[in-house]
Amino acid sequence: MEEEKKDSVVEKEDGITYGQVEVPTNERTIEKADELYTAENIQVLQGLEPVRKRPGMYIGTTASAGLHHLVWEIVDNAIDEALAGYCTKINVIINKDESITVTDNGRGIPVDIVHDSGLSGVETAFTILHAGGKFGSGGGYKVSGGLHGVGASVVNALSSWCEVEVAKEGGLYRTRFENGGNIVEHLERIGDVSNEEHGTKVTFKPDPTIFTETTHYQYETIKNHLRQMAFLNGGVEISITDSRVEPNLQESFLYNGGIREYVSFINSGKNAINPDVIYCQGAEQVTLVGGEELRIYAEIAMQWTDYYTTDGIYSFCNNISTKEGGTHVEGFNLALNRTLNDYARKMKLLSEKDPNLTTDDCREGLTCVISAKHPNPQYEGQTKTKLGNSEVRKIVSSIVGTQLMQYLMEHPVAGKAIIEKAKLAARGRIAAQKARETARKDALGISSLPGKLADCSSRDPEKCELYIVEGNSAGGSAKNGRDRETQAVLPLRGKILNVEKAREEHIFKNVEIGNMIQAIGGGIRENFDATKIRYHKIVIMTDADVDGDHIRILLLTFFYRFMRPLIEGGYVYIAQPPLYKVDYKGSAYYAYNDLELEKLKRALQLKDGHPVQRYKGLGEMNPEQLWETTMNPEVRKMIRITVDDAAQAEKIFSDLMGEDVLPRKQFISENARFAENLDI
To answer: What is the DSSP letter of 195?
Structure first.
């Protein structure tokens, strides 16, 4: 979750804040460049200058996500050594000064001189873009997550300083870079090690002039990423240490079962339909059109539960998360649909008059991890979120089709339970379709928008905001205190349905959920279209108490399950109303937490016993107070909701909102010490 303070900001890029500005009619004249355009105007950025000039092109953002991306780049290099078969241990340390140390026991970066650069292999990899050992058959890796040879050099470019130590062939070598990748100590041999010692140690300190928003690393974010890498690379031990706290936080992950254990981890707390995690794996040698021969490997682990979701597919290629799927997922879907229908017909679990199960029927309640290894992966777009290699589709389809059918034939009890689950999903799909059609007809018969919605006058989604407010009282204050041009208000009556426990046909009969679907306008589930949403800020505004927290969680669960692109696109926010109000010498002062209240008391030099109003609900604020504290873009505070790891989010939602009580008890016992301001 990211905290957003002033909303007059439109966009942040490369540490520069861009605000909303009026564009004059003669803008082209004003911006017209000099008529003289010669070779003198051509600027050549040397070395790592392009990275520092446009860091967003290489790490996406200079906010917290980009800061953590630096860690992923160095860890990925160590993981590539594991993929190559040489690394078994990786250790990540968050040092006290917020620098990061990543150590692996791989082969060690080459220390001899690279002919093309005249520098050692270490210095070349860390100072020259597009230099590395991952460029096809002549490289040092058959399979790797890195494609362009920019990872290490980008991290170096965006660091105040960076040190690299390499243990290789009996020697220990070190080099140091400062101020964006400048070599201050060339690689030199600083000692001897045994021939059995080998590996690389990288320590870097992010440059605060680049990462102006934050240079603070989140332990949980790094831990979750490393745990995922350990699942995807069975047998590799990955540990994390946080040296900023005493005693140090330290955890280690080693999963010999690989992605099978990943599926079990995601499904912990759910009731499994098939007790065993089904595992399929295989490799195939393919010859491409140009004659290139490649060996492509894929492994798939799957298990059905009694949940109703169809979005439990997590796909990867060379350990890169392919959030948008791609040909490996397409191949899996084809095989899944074909195999379950063939099995159901063969075992007489579907009658001749029954229609075939759809892919969504087959996927309901399914948790599946698909991991492909490809020597030359092609992704659609620079973000590596969708695999495009057509040859992978047939390979995955063949592997899953053969081995899933074998499992079903050998485990008839589990096979029957899986088919019954899919048949139940088909009945639910038909009922939900009827419920949707009824809801649509009702909506068209009354109004295209819910009657409780106080809409804004603007029709520009980028400017429009929807406040989903708890209760009619707070809704009334919000309606009267808002900016009517850009801010819409939709009051909720009580708590919405917990969609984690309900079937779809019941969800669509819920009035409050129906109102939100109509108001937002983008549709739901696989038909959701973010380009059609009516507001680019969906703001959840609830009371600062236990009931308000519960309503927020119910809403976030609904958005995650039915409108996930809203969260992934950064459109969902949580309003931060103040907890306290202090009247002093004719002026009102607000504090958003206990710490701010204490600072306010000291700043105003208040005497003990000075009256302080604690807001128990939004309804206690009049429209003017609600505007000036919570809705005014110039001063308000909001938290933007993001999802970094879909599998981790899946587990949290199912643990906290699902049927099983045990995971909630465990979560409470582990996190109770962090609870503050309990309203009991």
So the answer is: T
Scanning the structure block, which residue is given the tokens 């979120």?
Answer: 385
181 Rama sector, left if φ>0, alpha if ψ -120 to 50, beta otherwise: left
Tokens at 281, concatenated: 């794996």
240 Rama class: left (phi>0) / alpha (psi -120 to 50) / beta: beta
Distance, CA of 597 to chain centre: 34
Amino acid at 2: E
Res 646 pLDDT > 90? no
The total of other beta-carbon atoms located within 10 Å of residue 1's CB is 12
User: What stretch of H or E contains 504?
Assistant: helix 504-507
Q: Which of 518, 456, 453 is nearest to 484 (CA)?
A: 456
- Cβ atoms within 10 A of the Cβ of 276, count? 12
| Run of H or E including 540 | strand 537-541
Which tokens hold the place of 575? 């309003």
CB atoms within 10 A of CB 341: 21
What are the residues whose beta carbons fall under 8 Å from the beta carbon of 615, sequence distance 6 or more? 544, 577, 578, 579, 580, 581, 621
Q: Is 199 left (phi over 0), alpha (psi -120 to 50) or beta?
A: left
CB distance 367 to 312 below 8 Å: yes
Among candidate residues 312, 292, 287, the one with its CA nearest the CA of residue 300: 312
With contact defined as beta carbons under 8 Å apart, do 111 and 101 qualify? no
Do the strands 159-168 and 278-287 form a parallel or antiparallel pair, or are they unpaired? unpaired
Token pair in block for residue 612: 């302080």
pLDDT in tens, 329-381: 999 999 999 999 999 999 999 998 999 999 999 999 999 999 999 988 898 86
Mean pLDDT of 426-433: 81
Burial class of residue 523 in the structure, from the number of CB atoms within 10 Å of its CB (0-12 exposed, 13-18 middle, 19+ buried): middle
Please say whether the beta carbons of 267 and 365 come within 8 A. no
Q: Max alpha carbon distance in the chain (Å)?
A: 84
Asked if the peptide bond before residue 377 counts as cis, ω within 30 degrees of 0, the response is: no
572-575, strands of its sheet edge to edge:
2-4, 638-640, 572-575, 537-541, 465-470, 487-492
- CA 474-477-480 angle, to 5 degrees, is 150
Question: 467-512, pLDDT tens digit by residue?
Answer: 999 888 888 889 999 999 999 999 988 778 888 767 666 777 788 8
Rounded Cα distance between 541 and 533, Å, is: 19
Contact 148, 51 (CB under 8 A): no
pLDDT at 516: 92
Give the active site residues. 470, 543, 545, 547
Burial of 606 (0-12, 13-18, 19+ CB in 10 A): middle
Nearest-angstrom CA–CA distance, 450 and 442: 11
Of all residues in the chain, the percent with pLDDT exceeding 90 is 51
pLDDT at 178: 95
For 5-14, 447-456, 521-530, which range has the lowest pLDDT when averaged over its residues? 5-14
DSSP state of 680: -
Task: Provide the 8-state DSSP code for 145.
Answer: S
**Residue count of the chain:** 680
- Joined tokens for residue 162: 């960076």
Structure-block tokens of residue 211: 């990462």
C-alpha to C-alpha distance for 58 and 52, rounded to whole angstroms: 10
How far is residue 332 from each of residues 112, 219, 241, 269, 414, measured CA to CA in Å?
A: 44, 34, 37, 25, 20
